[in-house]
Amino acid sequence: MGIFATKALPEFIEVDLGRGPLQIRLKRNSRAKRYILRIPPGDPTPVLTIPARGNLKTAQEFANRQIGWLKERLGSRPDTIRFEEEARIPVRGVLHTLRSSGKLRGVAQLDHEEETEEPLLLLPGETQSFHRKTKDFLRKLAKEDLEGHVKHFAKQLGRTHHSITLRDTKSRWGSCSHDGKLSFSWRLVMAPPDILEYVAAHEVAHLVKLDHSPEFWRICEQLAPHTKYAQRWLKEHGSQLHLYGQE
Fold first, then answer.
1. Residue 41: what pLDDT?
2. Domain boundaries, given as residue ranges, for the chain
3. Percent of residues, the chain, with pLDDT higher than 70
4. Which long-range contacts (CB under 8 A, 24 or more apart) does 208-214 make?
5. CA distances (Å), 8 to each of 1, 100, 203, 231, in order?
6. Which residues contact 67 (CB under 8 A, 6 or more apart)?
7. Has residue 93 got a pLDDT over 90?
């Protein structure tokens, strides 16, 4: 035949670690020569790479043999990364170290270490308030970035939106109601800027087409030509953003 056809794989398989099922994301790689299981830094979901001629049955058997390794690796790392002094968190896709500004009052601000050029997020006040002040700063930054993109895209389409609300949902990055109310996850500000830009474009496109028809995707890609790249990024890395700043 000359062409080897492979069956489509599900997005996830599960293994039982004894305390409940664990999802493992499947990723086929035509250049891979063997099955490879890894845990991406900062991501709670393991990824199993499957070679071109690999199949679901062998992938499941391979994952089951790695249960001991998974227990050891997952048990030795924190489930979340708190907003506290010296923690490193992404801001617009760049890791910043949280550090005290040395001032009792003032506003949080992005800066850098003079000698090393290490990006910093400087926070005023007592370190006990870092969690709240970091979240407040990120929400404010997200609102500014999203409002700018929404205004720009809405003007391109000749549409108006009713309002912008920030939430902390895990099920979706943004939404648009029938009356033009837009809602976004504030965690998008931790992603690279072009990812936040895509989500803004996606929701503004819904002001024209409140569905996911071919016409909707045409409008979305008109506003954000990098739509497919951004979708892949969110699928592969979006869950990492939920590791930061959990109570």
1. 58
2. 12-75, 88-243
3. 93
4. 208/157, 208/159, 210/176, 210/178
5. 19, 50, 30, 19
6. 15, 16, 17
7. yes
Choose among 94, 136, 82, 128: nearest CA to 244: 82
180 HSE (CA, 13 A, CB side): 10
CA triple 69-72-77, angle to 5 deg: 130
First to last CA, the chain: 56
Q: What average pLDDT does the segment 223-239 reach?
A: 93
To the question of domain 88-243 being in CATH 3.30.2010.10, the answer is: yes
Q: Tokens representing 129?
A: 């308030």
| Residue 199: per-residue pLDDT | 98
Give the residue among 111, 114, 116 at the shortest CA–CA distance from 137: 111
Q: Could you tell me the pTM of the whole model?
A: 0.70
What's the average model confidence in pLDDT over 222-241? 93
CA contacts within 13 A on the Cβ side of 152: 13
User: Using CA atoms, how far apart are residues 193 and 157, in angstroms rounded to an integer?
Assistant: 21
